[in-house]
Amino acid sequence: MKIAVCIKRVPDMDVRFKIGADNVSLDEAGLKFDINDFDAWAVEAALQLKEKDAASEVTVISLGPDVVQETIRKALSMGADRGVQLKSDKVPFDGFPVAKALAEELKGGGYELILFGKMSPDSSNGVVGPMTAEFLGLPCVTAISSLEIANGKGTAKRELEGAQEIVEFQLPAVLTVDEGLNTARYPSLKGIMAAKKKPLQVKPVQLADPQVVVRKLELPAERKAGRIVGEGAAAVPELVKLLQTEAKVL
Amino acid sequence: MANIFAFVESRGLELRKVGLEAVTAARTLADKSGSGEVHALVLGPPGIAAKASQLGQYGADVVIAVEHAGLANYSPEVATATAADRIKSGGYRAAIFSTSAQGRDLAPRVAARLGVSAVTDVISFDLEGATVVVRHPINIGKVIATLAIAGSPAVIAMRPNVIAPAQNAKAGRVENAQPAVDPGSTRVKVVETRQGGSGKLDLAEAPVVIAGGRGLKAAENFKLVEDLASAFGNAAVGATRAVTDDGWRPHSDQIGQTGRLVSPELYIAVGISGAVQHLAGMRTSKTIVAVNKDKDAPIFKVADYGIVGDVFEVIPALTEAVREAKKHH
Q1: Which of A156, A152, A155 shows the shortest CA–CA distance to A172?
Q2: Which residues constitute the domain of residue A40?
Q3: pLDDT, mean over chain B
Q4: What CA–CA distance (Å, rounded) separates B171 from A215?
Q5: Which of A99, A219, A231, B104 matches a 20 to 30 Å C-alpha distance to B199?
Q6: Cβ distance A127 to B97 under 8 Å?
């Protein structure tokens, strides 16, 4: 069974973002980038299947400029077998053209399982996985937190609001991965060395025009400064009074 | 004039609150466009059509009810095909879904099948001429993007709790319809939906959220948080990632960057320091209260009201005071 994992390079979120001069992009100066967490869990899921002899080859695919090669190498150093860069100048906000390009690459690749992270924190939209599945006409299960593959069939669990779904699906299939499925391994030194020699294919792609266009980016209004009501249990009556009379939530 | 489509999320025979919000959002958009109608689609087991008749109150002019014994659980393939067929034949200006586990699953598939894009986690929308313009938080809520959606229909999924389901006296007309594909023939089957505790409020929908962090010191001390939630009566319990990673609470309770997004009326952070990854999940709450023994904890920077103190002393006192306050209402 061949597995493909689609991964994205995303900025570290633990910073104060600055809006670029054009007002529609972020100032990337000083930002650190790494593989999206959800995508790292998807890579881990694929590697675990390979280690159980349920998969023969793990391919990682990332769309974007040459800097995404670094992200692909990270996945290769975790243990994936080969990488594909779908080379485009930019990664648009709109997931539609991205999903189209990915589907074009995945089509005819003979993959039994295609994995995605359930979303990325930068665009926070979560549409690329399920859209790719639709373009490929494949069954799709999103946001899985458990996975078993046996006899050409899969079973997965999805977390809902206050409930869980147990889902059975046929292969080939597209799955998107939620937190809780696994813990991603760190690349070993040996893995990092090995990754340098693994094949990384670069394929230029022409993205379709986006249908969703960023018109403006802005920083959200800062919350107005709060106050310390007091210390210890003695402050509780004052807090309750404020919740009743000022915030009107009690 | 433009008609607007709304997908109404259900679980078993229950219409979910986010579904009612989708209908009200569609009503708002239809009214902005002039004289459009709202058509609401509901799928479920036999009996769902009777439930769906109430959707008129929330702004639906037409309710399309698809009842089938095979739809006791969510069926992504049936829902996708049925919604896409209906939207295609209806010529809608926009199709509104919910940003929930189900809506996040469904909206992008329906959009792809229609050949258009989708925007999830929408916090507000407007109509500029024929273009639907929405606001959508990116970078874990640290940046707000204003997006123009060129494709038609505009497929959007609303964030829960940003639109209150509006009640009006209008009655919707219910039409019965068939699923677009046979629920027995799908390649993906939800074989079981396991409910959490009975009547348990969901984090995304609860008006009050009480969340606990490492400051509680041990899993069993979450009882303090549970007790405070039950004193409110309308509260759900959440946790930080540190706590769910340690297995004190299930991953589904995690509020933050990789977990749940909540924006309740009132958020109470108990023993939570306020890591960036946690703030990402709750900073849009309307009122934030923090109780922490460290006066320099970052949570106090976003909290409207803070108490510096020992959670084991403050929370029981607060629980008692909330119980008292609720008695007098």
Answers
A1: A152
A2: 2-204
A3: 93
A4: 38
A5: B104
A6: no
Give the span between the Cα atoms of B237 and B227, in whole angstroms: 10
β-bridge partners, B192: A166
Report how many domains make up chain A. 1
The residue in chain B having the minimum alpha-carbon distance to the alpha carbon of residue A235 is B307
Strands B208-212 and B266-270, sheet pairing: parallel
Report the CATH number that the domain containing residue A176 is assigned in CATH: 3.40.50.620
**Could you give the CA distance from residue A32 to residue B21 in angstroms, rounded to a whole number?**
38
Q: Residue type at B156?
A: I
The pTM for the full model equals 0.93
User: Is the residue at A84 inside a domain?
Assistant: yes
B205 close contact with A: CB closer than 8 A: yes
* Distance in angstroms (rounded) separating the CA atoms of residues B27 and B38: 6
Domains of chain B, each with CATH number or no CATH? 4-185 (3.40.50.620), 208-327 (3.40.50.1220)
Whether A54 contacts A173, CB under 8 Å = no
pLDDT in tens, B62-89: 999 999 999 999 999 999 999 999 999 9
A90 occurs within a structural domain: yes
Alpha-carbon torsion angle B229, B231, B235, B238, nearest 10: -10
Nearest CA to B192 out of A155, A152, A133 is that of: A155
**From B77, B200, B325, residue closest to A240, measured CB to CB:** B325
Q: Which residues 53-92 on chain B approach chain A with CB closer than 8 angstroms?
A: 73-74, 76-77, 80
Residue-wise pLDDT for A87-103, tens only, equals 999 999 999 999 999 99
Tell me the ipTM for this assembly.
Answer: 0.95
* Separation between Cα atoms, residue B254 and residue A191, nearest integer Å: 32
Q: Out of B101, B111, B303, whose CB is closest to A160?
A: B101
SS3 A170: strand
Pairs of residues, one from chain A and one from chain B, whose beta carbons lie less than 8 Å apart: 282
